[in-house]
Write a structure and sequence with these properties.
single chain; mainly alpha; two-stranded antiparallel sheet; 11 helices; 66% helix; globular
């Protein structure tokens, strides 16, 4: 199953290929969901491992005393891990979403079947939980204690659920909008895995002390459940989904207007 996150090679080079509705079956949905579960598990095991050694008690943590420097290292490591998972054989087969908001965005872009969205999201959340459990099993109590706290995120002091919801919505919206623009340009589409890794890593580095920099419901679900930090979980789950829907609608509207300009021979408006 190929979808927008992993461009397929066509006769004239890499291009974005949607999943044709007639070719989509329960078998392909099941296979893609299993792979998304595996990818999410690997991602969250990687995240918990990175947090354990960079934020938790360790020689690495001691060598990086400043929180912003720690977040920069965590962001870079997570970004590279995410790009690698998207480009992996499993990522190429499933589409490499590993994020419920991305699955929704790909559906709204017309590049992913709507019938596969719910199975993918369920698989991603399950993978998040399993990957966090694996991290706890491997790294033991040191991962569960602060400051690692099973890699569960919390907003900074003074942040309410409302302000956190707005920030997560906007953050995910920016990511989805940029990904959507790259996917619409054949020359840029092959760069999407690296773009996603860069944007997620930047969000972690810049937003880690304020919103936590989740921008992925699957990133927060497993750690929050395992750590029992459920206060803001609904925000981390729902806000990115809303951001993806709004950004996809904006991207589709802009691209639709541009295509209409080209069909009618009118000069394209400067909206890019």
């Amino acid at each position: 199953m190929t979808s927008a996150m992993t461009p397929a090679a066509g006769p004239q080079g890499p291009s974005v290929r949607s999943v044709p509705a007639p070719a989509f079956t329960r078998r392909t949905a099941a296979l893609g969901s299993v792979l998304e579960c595996v990818l999410a598990s690997v991602l969250l095991f990687g995240v918990t491992t990175i947090v354990r050694w960079v934020a938790g008690p360790s020689p690495v943590s001691a060598a990086i005393p400043q929180i912003h420097e720690k977040l920069l290292v965590i962001g870079a490591c997570v970004g590279l891990l995410l790009a690698g998972l998207i480009l992996s054989p499993a990522g190429k087969a499933s589409g490499g979403h590993i994020n419920p908001a991305i699955s929704i965005a790909m559906w709204r872009f017309g590049l992913f079947p709507g019938a596969a969205v719910a199975p993918y999201i369920a698989a991603q959340l399950l993978g998040s939980f399993l990957g966090t459990l694996a991290g706890r099993a491997v790294w033991g109590p040191a991962l569960g204690r602060p400051p690692a706290a099973d890699a569960a995120l919390q907003p900074g002091p003074g942040w309410s659920a409302g302000t956190l919801f707005a920030a997560e919505t906007v953050s995910m919206g920016v990511i989805v909008f940029l990904v959507g623009l790259f996917l619409a340009a054949p020359r840029l589409a092959p760069l999407v895995p690296w773009l996603v890794g860069l944007l997620i890593g930047t969000a972690i580095a810049l937003l880690g002390t304020t919103t936590g920099g989740s921008v992925n419901p699957a990133r927060q679900f497993g750690p929050a459940v395992v750590a029992g930090r459920l206060d803001f979980l609904w925000v981390y789950l729902l806000a990115p989904l809303l951001g993806a829907l709004l950004a996809a609608a904006l991207r589709n509207g802009l691209l639709g207007s541009r295509r209409q300009d080209l069909r009618t021979g009118a000069a394209p408006t400067q909206r890019w």
